[in-house]
Amino acid sequence: MAAHLQPESLPSADLGGPALRAFFNLAERWDLRIADQRRLLGDPPESTFYKWKRLQSGTLSRDVLERISYLLGIFKNLQILFPDPQQADTWVHRANQSPLFGGQSALQRMLSGNVADLYVVRQYLDAQRGWN
Q1: H or E element: which one contains 63?
Q2: Which residues form the Antitoxin Xre/MbcA/ParS-like toxin-binding domain (predicted)?
Q3: C-beta separation of 111 from 93 below 8 A
Q4: Is 39 left (phi over 0), alpha (psi -120 to 50) or beta?
Q5: pTM, entire model
């Protein structure tokens, strides 16, 4: 997986393919349903989503790139925090007693549709790693 991208400095035309390939790889590792994948990407039209999935390429908006960037940062943090890849990949599905999640999983929090929730989960994991 790629390192965390800085959304504000992204040349979006060049990153569509790599970002989508990384996202769909992450989605497979996290065993995400299609509806969840679309939600995490900001609910693109179904036809657009399937085109991205089929071609593993496309021009992405700044919002979609930002979402993928946060997700890749979350993925990277989990790989560092949990040496067992399966434990890292299933963490997003497990209930979490942190006040931030209120007994829900990180995935449930991220599926609100708000990019801010991806940011919050990323920040939470950064803090767990000691990166404030």
Answers
A1: helix 62-81
A2: 78-130
A3: no
A4: alpha
A5: 0.87
Interior angle at CA 79, CA 94 and CA 129, nearest 5: 90
Tokens representing 94? 């497990």
> Any idea what DSSP says for residue 95?
B
Report yes or no: 45 and 93 within 8 Å, Cβ to Cβ.
Answer: no
Instruction: Give domain limits for the chain.
Output: 14-129
Is residue 132's pLDDT more than 80?
no
**Count of residues making up the chain:** 132
- Gap between the Cα atoms of 104 and 43, Å rounded: 22
Torsion over CA: 34, 56, 77, 118 (sign): negative
What DSSP state is assigned to residue 96? Answer: -
Q: 79, 88 in Cβ contact below 8 A?
A: yes
Q: Is the pLDDT of residue 4 over 60?
A: no
pLDDT at 32 over 70: yes
C-alpha closest to that of 69 among 1, 3, 5, 2? 5
